[in-house]
Every structure is written in C-alpha cells, then in structure tokens.
Amino acid sequence: MSDAVIQAAKDDAAADLFTPTQSVAARFRRNKLSIFGAVIVVMAFAAALLAPWLSPLNPDAVDASSRLAPIGTEGHLLGSDELGRDILSRLIWGARVTLLVSLSATAIALIVGTFLGLISGYFLGWLDSVIMRLIDILMAFPYFLLALAVIAVLGPGLLNGMIAVALVNIPFFTRIVRGVTLSVRESDYVMAARGIGASNTRILVRHVLLNCVSTIIVAGTLNIGWMITAAAALSFLGLGVQPPTSDWGTMLSSGRQFLSAAPHVATLPGLAIFITVLGFNLLGDGLRDALDPRLRE
Amino acid sequence: MSEQVESRASPKASDAAAQSPVQAEHEAALLDVVGLKTHFFTFGGVVKAVDGVSLSVRRGETLGVVGESGCGKSVTALSIIGLVPDPPGRTVAGRIDFEGRGDLVGAGAEAMREIRGNEISMIFQEPMTSLNPVFRVGMQIAEAIRLHRKVSKKEAMDSAIEMLGLVGIPSPMARARDYPHQLSGGMRQRVMIAMAMACQPKLLLADEPTTALDVTVQAQILDLMNRMKEASGAAIMLITHDMGVIAEMCQRVSVMYAGVVVEHTDVQTLFANPLHPYTVGLLDSIPRGRGRGGVSGQLKTIPGIVPNLLHLPKGCRFQDRCSQVHAACRQSEPPLARSFDEDGAGHLVRCWLHVSPAETPARPQDQS
User: Fold this and answer.
1) What ipTM does the predicted assembly reach?
2) Taking CB atoms and an 8 Å limit, are B147 and A197 in contact across chains?
3) What pTM, to 2 d.p., does this model score?
4) How far is A283 from chain B (nearest CA, A)?
C-alpha cells in the first residue's frame, strides 16, 4: 500500500536533485491522464502536418455513387458525406484548419494579453486602470456576441474568425498575467534586481516575464481547447471558414441535416472536436500540476 | 523639571556645545544624510516611518544602525538607494549627499540606476528569496556586472566566478551553474554579497544580512563582510537589531527608535556608557548567560511596544516605555544633541535627561 507513496516521495526527492526542466518532466510523467492528453495532442498535430500523406483520398473529391456511405464501407473507412466525400480524409485535412485557427488565435491572444497584463501589473497607476477597465468592457460582452460583432464588422472568413476569437480571449491572458506580475513585482529578487541597478524594461523581461512563463504555458494550452470549440462554433454558424475550405465545425454543420438518415456524418467531426479539446485540457492540467510548485505536496 | 536639567548641566558640556560640528568632518563623510523624512501615505493616514533621520558614513568605516522592528532602519536604507515603494512611500524632506556630489533625493531615475549596484549596493535580509529562482547564480552575478561595466558575457561570467571564489564558495566554477534552490541559506547570502560587491561599490547597505541565517553561519557571513570590506575599502551601513553584531562589526552606531535617531556615538562608548533609556534597555536585553542578568538570571525586556507611527505621542517618542519619564518628556520632543554629561566629543542623544532645552540640535558628526 505504502509502496506507491514511498516511490512518489523518492521521485520527488530525485526531482529536486535535477534541474527544473528535468524535475518538471519527472512530475509530468507520473500523471497518466496528462500523458494520455499529450498523446492525443501529438496525434492531432501529426494528422494536421502529415495530411497529404495520411489521408487516403482527396478530401474534396465528389463521388455521387457513394453518398452518405456508412462507416466501414469499402474505400470509405469512416463513410462519406452527402456529396460522397471521404469523411476520414476530410477529418484529417480539417485538423489542419482547426488547429491553425485555434493555435494562431491563441498566439495572438497570448501575446497581446501577456503584454497588457505585464505592463498593467508592473506599472500600476493610471495605466493599470485604463487597461483593466478596457478589459472589463471586453469581458462585459457575452463571449460569443463579441465574436459575432467582430465578424459582422470585418465580414466572415478564416482570418476574421481567428481575430474574433483571439480578441475575445485577450482578457483571459491579461488577467492571469497581471495577477502573477503583481506578486512577482513585490518579490525580494525583483527588489534585489533594482538594487543592482536593473532598469524597468530589464526587470519586466528577465525577471517578471520569465517567472510568468510556466503560468502562460498552462493558460495557453488550456486556452487552445476553448479556441477549438469557439472556432468550430463560428464555422458551424457559417461565419468562420468559408467553402471550399472546411474545418470540423463546417463538417458538423453540413452533416446536421442528415442526422436521422446518416448520423455518423455529423457525429464524427463532433467526436474529433471533443477528443482534441479533451486532449488539450488534460495536457494543460498535467502541465499545471507539473509546473506549479504550489500544487506540489 | 528644569531644576533637574540645570543641575546636570556641566561647564564642559556647554563648551562642547558651543563648538559647531567641524566642517572637515562633513567633507570626509562618504554618505551624509540630513533630516531625512520618508512617509507612507496610506488610507489610515500618513505613516512617518522615517521622521528626520540624520546620519553619516565615513569612508571605510562600518556604521551600525540598530533598533527594534518597525523603527525605520530598512526604510532609511531604501530611501538612500531610492527604492522606497512609491506609492505609497515617498521621501518628503531631507538631503542625501553621496561623496559630496549633491543630493540623491532629487536625482533622476536614470542617475539612481547608475549609482545602484555600482557605487552603492544593498544586501537584503532574505537570502532565500532574493535570488531569482529561474536563473543560474553565476548569471545573476554576471548580470550585475554587465549592467555597469562594458564587458563581454564571457568576461562578466569570469568575474562572477572569481567573485564566487572571493566570497568563499568552494568550487565556484561548478556552483556558478547552480540554481538558487540548490544552495543553502548561507551560500545564497554569500552569492548576494558577491553580487553586491561585484562592481566594487563604495558603500554597502546591509539590511539585517545575518538575521535569516543559522547562528553558526552568521559568524562566517560577518567575517566575510569584514574581509570584503578590508579588501575593497568599501564603507558599510549595517542595519541590525542584534547588539552582538554591532559589537563585532561597527566603529560607530546610530540607535533608532520610532523613525528617529535617539543616540549616536562610537561603539565603545555605546557599550560602556549608554545614555538613552532605550539604548540601556536594548543592552540589558542581551542574553548574557547564567547569573549575570540579575538575581533571577532572567532576561530583561523593554516593556511595551513601538508606538503606532500613525499616532505618535506628544513629546518624546519613548515616553510610554521609559522608566525615567518625567514632565518634560510629555511636553516636547528633545533634540538630538550633545549630552551635557559628555564622556567624549561625539556622544549625541535625544533625551531630556541628558540634553538641556537650550541645546542647539547637532548633527551626528563627531570629532574623534
């Protein structure tokens, strides 16, 4: 019974002897669920990157003879949609668009949000008040309504959809980073850095930002999951990705009309979204447990 | 009250009072702080953490600043180096003259950054948290060097390793590659000293450098600071609440209480003939081992606590805790002045038992 506990204690003791990177990896490996999440994420990325080699058929090839083919049909492993396009191939190619949109949207939100959070939490005063009130305004809008408003102004499309979901997620990063900055700026080592004559910029970049990195990584990973759902939802409403490109959201949307006749056409992209989001969330949780020293026993 | 004061006045003291502080002493001082007031503007009111502190540090000497927690020692040091958190704190009055080059209080942020770590360095109380956990210690010392010297990364790292060796860290090459969490408290404080001394500052502000350390390590760190001081010729302003550390390290001492200096003299005089009741209390509360602390051998304490800086009493700040309090103490605050029962030229005290109301406030400059 206590063997596991003793082993865990030994692992912890061992982890402390290694460099931070090694001990984080050791703690991460102990969490089976996060490994599972990491595997899913790696598979999703592999599908996206290797789409031309992995997909059995051209995802846009229409085959009138095999419309709405069920799962397991010869030549169409996961069946085909209402135009006879191979669902497996479309899922693999769709991973590209879905991941591209959610990753770049996360990157935009992360960079802008982190920047705002850093200067807001570090300099405080009127700058902080202005930034945080703007963030409050951004947050006061219902999440999806704001994205719709952005699309309404910029017009539907892949790029605009990306900007819309990015904008909506800026407050998430700003608030998290501001919180960490507020605590780091009061730390003794920031005081000591001032004591050796470091400038504000230097302290912000080298001391505050680098101590926020683990938090930002975790927030970013968890955020990608949200972004996938948000991007899929926009596509589902026909406001995101425009034909002929398609992501999992548009597949879900077009398959919805045949839900009673051929449920797999809508269900499979839905499952793909579900599993990928789950993968990112498990990975994010695992990273948080591994990186956040406060959760360590 | 006046009777008592007059009866204690001696001709010798009046003569000494007539002499104005010697001008040459001002110029010899490396750091000269006059009437420093640093206040914190809080919702509850203005906290006068430092309320008119004057002190000076001469080249190559160690000035001790001693007092209880919350008496303004650290804020004084932070004010000198310009690191008082603003808001809520601000230096509202006073002059800080460094090397006769003018006032640091009004100096711009850029000018202060040039001085910090280069000419005036600070060692903080908490070695466990004063190093950035995400950088190797060698790099942190090299950073301090590269902020003030135009040297390559390689040269800075070489100097950093040399500094680690100087502060007595074994195998400095290997330790430079360690992260702070891999070092013990004493080792980290050595790293902090290496960092502070890396640019050969002229003045080192040490804010309770040994308080957070084990007793055995304390002596080593004090010894190291003395050796570093002798090697570099730097002056030290040593903040502590430990009279033992004062005796070990300092040439002159300023005793602080509730935001002001209450006694200032050289270290021998302070221990042999303390004047201010607060100083007497501090010396009495040093543990002295069996049989020397009175009949019962119990440790003496000073009754009461430091007054709330938001609501200072009228008159002497120490009145509520003083065993020799009398009417004058409740009337007005005594100046920091030469005592009339003068034992040496430079014994300054802020107490109605030892200065007369006619005394002109003196600067903590002595003529020894």
Assistant:
1) 0.75
2) yes
3) 0.76
4) 23
